[in-house]
């Protein structure tokens, strides 16, 4: 039949003038039913150009008015902010930030940012399937790294799961939101895709990979995860070396740490959960996949002949268009020349290297628990090899100081990935900077100084996680409290959006649930105003910023045998209230360690007058608490006058800066079998 008309329907939810430039109808072959339209006529008025001079006109007032409506300013933070809460049925750790006077506004914003982001994470991290979506479904999107602060429903990264987010936001959700099912499903979701990269198309050995060049995957290479876990050959990935597929090792290693974290919070099991073959994961047990992932890193170090870790991905900018690796590298087949190519390549950075050494040490703990002591020792040896390699190969000089190098083509806007040794310590190395690797920590302190000297100083939010978040985490871990305060405050104010504070009754849309969710980034303008950009609740950036808030609570169970609480309360904050925070507690001994359980603790910490009160639903076998920051005189007075409700030892420690001088801290240590604790000091 001849098409009699084509109807075009306007979408009233999309603003703007409609424009239809052409309509093309296609058929499989020529047909009498497809006939050309008659010759069209043009209205003569459309052929006459209309020129209207803008001379003498100005839109400055209109632009300024629009900017006041769309952009955020410090004046928008002067009103009172009501505290929000978790929905009924959601059991999660809560951090409430405290402050006095006008600073209470930003304290409440930070409290709301913590809750809003955990609610968003809970919604996009499916507990049944383990799929950790990068974006929530149809969450607002502010466009790319530009725009004017307007948004549309998009959720543009909803279909992807990036293994790097095992660190960025998955770990926050696994630890802080109560859901054991999610811990197991997350591990299994990752393992579905671990075996994509292999030298065969056998569906009994891994997922369908017909588009993968198996002839370019070494037969002795263990499997690994990709840049986008569930889309291993995602479009746009550059082909760099002779190994087919992207070896994005910061993501691969983050997934290793994520599964270790899930394993620990499930009690560090060594029975069927860990060792039984899974029919839906190619007959592999969870231990098999842990071992295979670790062996890939060892294999890669041997294959490249380097003591630091090769990485293809955003950290190395996909090779900077070929400027970071030898020409013809992807086609080389001679092994001697391949080794030479890796010597010349410039794609070895602190971020993937430090995450890899941490991942190997975490997996070594799992091996020890099973009694696999030889494997544990082997992985520890490779981790130490990377550690020494980083100091030898990945440092440079800045202002006469040794600092970590920066990737010349990193996509992270302000290069905060270079301080990974501090901000990734939250998993295994711990939260006490005086117990971190001394030489590496000195280098990282110098690097923090370099990073803060960049334009923007305490405001580097073009990426809220990769910029502002990593910078804040580093300042907090290193006890640089004069910097940590303004950095943390900026996470709060850049996460809030006044324009989401409304309910659209006509469309039945309540935008207020998005008001405190951290965006992918913020454009911070010279006049001090700012607006959000990118993907709202972007997992990578959202999670890192949320980790910074988590660091303030200071729950350090990286070694459950030596549990510490190290709260960090930079000015202008005055204290914290932490509720229902999970803590790993050792119980019965197992091979090379002990099985674990989760206690839940509540504590309140106030700086003035100084007081710390703790309650735990399980007895804590060990406990140390660090209070501060103080000046030297304040610390000495506090040490003398502090009253402790249980038997303990007290000492003064020095770390970082406070009030432009050395920061002093008071440790209360040696406490055991604690369910209740009171620390008071009326002089501070």
Put the structure in a nutshell.
By secondary structure, the protein is of the alpha+beta class. It is 33% helix and 18% strand. It is globular and about 95 Å long.
Topology of this protein?
Elements: H1 60-70, E1 94-99, H2 104-124, E2 140-141, E3 152-153, H3 165-176, H4 180-194, H5 249-265, H6 272-275, H7 286-304, H8 335-344, H9 350-370, H10 373-393, E4 395-398, E5 401-404, H11 420-423, H12 438-452, H13 464-477, H14 481-495, E6 503-504, E7 509-510, E8 519-524, E9 530-536, H15 539-553, E10 555-556, E11 564-565, E12 573-590, E13 593-607, E14 610-630, H16 632-641, E15 643-644, E16 649-658, E17 661-681
What's the β-strand tally?
Answer: 17
Helix/sheet category: alpha+beta
Q: How much β-strand is present in the residues?
A: 15-25%
Shape: globular
List the uncertain runs.
none
Radius of gyration: 28 Å
Helicity, as a percent range? 25-40%
* Arithmetic mean pLDDT: 94
